[in-house]
Amino acid sequence: MSQVSVTINGRQFRMACEDGQEGHLMNLARELDGRIDGLRAKFGEIGDTRLTVMAALTIADSLAETGLRIKRLEDELAALQDARMEAANRDKAALAAMAAALNAAAERIEGIAEKLNVPAAANVAMG
């Protein structure tokens, strides 16, 4: 475990984190500190605890909105995947129908060719 010192709302905090996560933790602390500063600029000095709670609530709100957006995107993705499968099934059915039509046409052409290839002498009556 690593130790990182972060500053939030003018106070230093020593935090433990997994090795390699130090930069990420410092960025998160900077983001929280920035939100608190923004709220202080908007509402003035309304108390450290209240500012921290308001910052936490804005983060929770963003997280909830992101969760809803992810859910909508997952639903949209599922619908698109279903539509793709339906289109692929239609394509398969259309290809099968075209193959059947081509086979039927080929059989008709072969039948006509056989009739045309009958020797002329067979059609002439002798006698």
Characterise the protein shown here.
The chain is mainly alpha-helical. The protein has one domain. 72% of the residues lie in helices and 11% in strands. The chain has two helices and two strands, in the order E-E-H-H. The chain has helices spanning 22-43, 48-116, and strands at 2-8, 11-17. Strands 1-2 form a two-stranded antiparallel sheet. Helix 1 (22-43) packs across helix 2.
What's the mean pLDDT score?
A: 93
The rounded distance between the terminal residues' Cα atoms is 112 Å
What's the total count of β strands?
A: 2
The share of residues in extended strands comes to 5-15%
Contiguous low-pLDDT stretches (5 residues minimum) are none
Question: Main attributes?
Answer:
about 130 residues, mainly alpha, 2 strands, rod-shaped
Short description:
Helices cover 72% and strands 11% of the residues. The chain has 127 residues and is mainly alpha-helical. The protein has a two-stranded antiparallel ribbon.
Topology overview:
Elements: E1 2-8, E2 11-17, H1 22-43, H2 48-116
Antiparallel strand pairs: 1-2
Helix pairs in contact: 1-2
